[in-house]
Amino acid sequence: MKCAESAVVEAPAGVVVRVAVDAPQHSGLNAPLDYASERALASGSLVRVPLGKRELLGIVWPGDAVGEPAPALRPVTAVFDALPPLGPAWCRMLDFAAGYYQRSVGELASAVLPPQLRELSPEQLVARLRKLQKKLARPAAAEPVRPALAAEQAEAVARIQAQLAAPSPKPMLLFGVTGSGKTEVYLRAAEAALASGRQVLVLVPEINLTPQLEARFTERFAALLPEPMAIVSLHSALTPAQRLQNWLAAHLGRARLVLGTRLAVFASLPDLGLIVVDEEHDPSYKQQDGARYSARDLAVWRAHDAKVPVVLGSATPSLESWQHAESGRYERLTLTTRIGGGALPRVKLFDMKTLPPSAGVTTALTAPLLAALKERLDRGEQSLVFLNRRGYAPVLHCGECQWKSDCPHCSAWRVFHKRDRTLRCHHCGFTERVPQACPNCGNHDIAPLGRGTERLEEQLAEALPGARVMRIDADSTRRKGELEAQLQAVHDGDVDILVGTQMITKGHDFRRIRFVAAVNPDGALFSSDFRAPERLFALLMQAGGRAGRDAAGESPAEMWVQTWHRDHALYQALARHDYVRFARDQLAERQSAGLPPFAHLALLRAEARTAEAAQAFLAAAAELMQDDGVLVYPPVPHAVARVADVERMQMLLEAPQRGRLQACLRAWVPALIALKRERSAEFRAVLRWAVDVDPLAI
């Protein structure tokens, strides 16, 4: 057991407590530290303790006391007595997550607890709790009108309710086509759990989906949960004060239903009875910095540990979850038909090779596509055009000297944004005004190359005069409230053609859209990332799922995919809405290649001032690997090798069993910490390194 670093002080008589504090992993202080306390403290109690010259928030960690305090131990400086301790189940989950993702417990705890907790004194927290107690009750609400369940929905709800009463429930994969009523299944399952006095956790992948889902859950449960703060959300868009308030409501048991993004998987829920993970395939559930945890995987582990059901829902499940369902580890619930008689859109694969050769043959807006959009416009129907690239154009180009608008700080292009006449790097944020002439040769004739959503919006408005065209992407929704206002305009019928990135393909219930077009989707077919086809298929299925959700439309819903590779197996499966065939083919490929879910991966990432320094560190790390059963690949650069003048390299580890990989990492990571410390002069240029377990992007 390590001791808190300090000069020797006179410790009060009392006991020794183990406290998890935010000591970064690379400091070597990975375990909870020993402190002196005047009295015994319950595990999970929040305290303030000194560490070096700082005073930090800590958690009294479960474990055996080691007797009376030694004189060298520093004392606990404050105890948050007004707050009930974090429960044993929460501590177990944090312990597991820290071990699995190779971080220190204190570091992870600091990252997932509300930031304001770190700043408050016990007295200030008492004031916050008083404020929470004064929250006014909502006015009485009428009993909600519940829609009748389709036969498949009723069966799914019955099977989830059966698992609510099971002693060791099995994870459930709710596989339902877009528009098949998965949310209603979640609502009925949540209702059953709430009626039994339990808390419910619902996870969604994107912040912009949280308000609309919260509104739907609030409407349904306003009568069942009339108490103030009974339904709360947890995500990073909340103010620090809101996040603390909602977290306290969940921890105290006042919040019975918690909706949130990946961070909410760590919510303290003493009466947890059900976990729902909507769009479980979405890569947003994987944290991409710090402790790189997967909220979906932790939700499954948490449900197993707490012996409560977990429902993973998707129209395009991750191949890992699908394989678990195929093997019987997960129970599969299937919804094959849309609610209300709506039909899935007919998919038309438009072969770009059939267009006559011309200078503009690569254009996104082909004449047949414009004709199809005009036909829908004349009928008064809404259309959606999906292009997963924001900005006006990916790059500015000089035809004389071939200069392109590269970023001086990254190995990437700066994107041309026409509205504010800037060149903006989407990796480091470096922004400059568009030059009047080529900075290389002085040529005034520099032009955009390629196409982004901003340019597509402009060209649609020009080609279809009178059409009300709206763009929704990360650039058009920067200010607070903009996204909600734009989505409402779509729902109200004030938009004829919606243009956007993947932001508009997930979870939105657009009742008026009858036509979806995906332009320039082929790039992902040839990515070096083995997961790219899986992500593309999910994205296109989700995009197509926005069309035809209302069966009342006069014309059949249609999805138009413009591709140069019409016969590709991915597009052929998409045309048939055949996820099962796509998953079977992909899993067969993965098994023959020894890729997840049939193998288990970890990445060691290094960032340095030079690529040579990063590569040297990774090579030295490879030499420390002791397990011959774990395959170590040579170091390679990231897809974007330099960001903000920092060079990035990565090294892949592969093992046939998860346990083998974890055992290897447990021995290897401390050796890496020692390597960086003992050879600090040699690796001075190495700025950061991190282990990413179960990486999603390679």
Automatic annotation (TrEMBL):
What the protein does comes down to: Initiates the restart of stalled replication forks, which reloads the replicative helicase on sites other than the origin of replication. Recognizes and binds to abandoned replication forks and remodels them to uncover a helicase loading site. Promotes assembly of the primosome at these replication forks.
Q: Which organism is it from?
A: Pelomonas nitida
Positions annotated to bind Zn(2+) 2: 407, 410, 425, 428
Q: Does the keyword DNA-binding apply?
A: yes
GO MF annotation list: hydrolase activity
**Manner of cofactor binding, per the entry note:** Binds 2 zinc ions per subunit.
Domain Helicase ATP-binding span(s) in chain numbering? 163-335
The record's catalysed reaction(s) read: Couples ATP hydrolysis with the unwinding of duplex DNA by translocating in the 3'-5' direction; ATP + H2O = ADP + phosphate + H(+)
Q: Which cofactor does it need?
A: Zn(2+)
Q: Which UniProt keywords apply?
A: ATP-binding, DNA replication, DNA-binding, Helicase, Hydrolase, Isomerase, Metal-binding, Nucleotide-binding, Primosome, Zinc
The entry sums up its family as follows:
Belongs to the helicase family. PriA subfamily.
Q: How does it assemble?
A: Component of the replication restart primosome.
Statement: the UniProt record of this protein carries the keyword ATP-binding: yes
**E.C. numbers:** 5.6.2.4
> Which PROSITE patterns does the UniProt record give?
HELICASE_ATP_BIND_1
Put simply, this protein is called Replication restart protein PriA
Q: Where does Zn(2+) 1 bind?
A: 398, 401, 438, 441
